[in-house]
Amino acid sequence: MLSIRNLDVEFHSDQSRVHAVKGISYELSEGQTLGIVGESGSGKSVSSLSILKLLPSTARVSGEVFWKGTDLIKETEAAMRLVRGAQIGYIFQNPLSALNPVFTVANQMVETICLHSDATKEEALEEAIELLDKVKIENPRKRIHDYPHQFSLGMCQRIMIAMTLSMKPDLLIADEPTASLDVTTQKEILELMDSLKEEYQMSMILISHDLGVVAERCDEVAVMYLGEIVEMGTPKDIFGSPKEAYTKILIDAIPKIRF
Ligand SMILES: Nc1ncnc2c1ncn2[C@@H]1O[C@H](COP(=O)(O)OP(=O)(O)O)[C@@H](O)[C@H]1O
Ligand SMILES: [Mg+2]
After folding, report:
1. For 91-111, what is each residue's pLDDT tens digit?
2. pLDDT in tens, 221-254
3. How far apart are CA 48 and CA 91, in angstroms?
4. Atom 24 (ligand 1) nearest CA
5. Where are the domains of the chain?
6. Pocket of ligand 1 from Cβ distances under 6 Å
7. 203, 209, 211, 255: which is closest to 237 by C-alpha?
8. Which overall architecture, per CATH, does domain 31-54+79-253 show?
9. Helix (DSSP H) and strand (DSSP E) numbers for the chain
């Protein structure tokens, strides 16, 4: 359903050029989860944001991003607005960057739901409350009228997940969704995403710098290093016989329990 071919991204400014993504290719089939791992700065976010054309105008993007048969790289901004959210959802590392601090959660969720369906405001509010319940926000009927700053960071990420799910995307891109959270909350959010992926039958691209997080829940893993996919395979292949020295470093970086 998603086929990326020779995707290349370079940032140009007067002072510098950054070759952030160097001709990467991968495929994702329906219902599959692809993990993208690699250290900070390896091009995970830039390559994923280019799928939705969310990069600033300093980015020169080339290659092909086939989504359900059309090349998104060639699509207009108007066409992309129909793809973003409704077909491909994006969850950012920092939930606060995507929530508007001056509106209540109810305001933001109702607006999103109304924009993507023909629900009335009352119906949208009911749906939003149900979604908050699903992502395990306690007392959602009351809490939905609170502002983002009245929630913890972990709860804001749950709200973002609920908001993204309200658009019923076919593909969910989760860009280090737990990186800004403490370890216990990380685990809860990842478990929540596992169960929602199952329930909503979505495909998923899960981005993380932690190979351990990705290996547990992905059908395939792409290892990125300096803008390239240096290795790709099933978690079993990657762990069983890592071909690249860099992959071995990532494996060694996974915390092991010692007694
Ligand atoms: N808007 C931008 N302008 C210039 N360079 C950028 C921009 N965004 C990202 N980069 C650079 O592109 C490279 C890849 O970044 P990114 O995809 O964000 O890494 P990752 O998500 O793997 O941590 C890095 O060198 C980063 O500094
Ligand atoms: Mg990133």
Report:
1. 998 888 889 999 999 999 999
2. 999 999 999 999 999 988 887 888 888 888 888 7
3. 11
4. 41
5. 31-54+79-253
6. 11, 18, 20, 38, 40-46, 56, 58
7. 211
8. 3-Layer(aba) Sandwich (3.40)
9. 10, 10
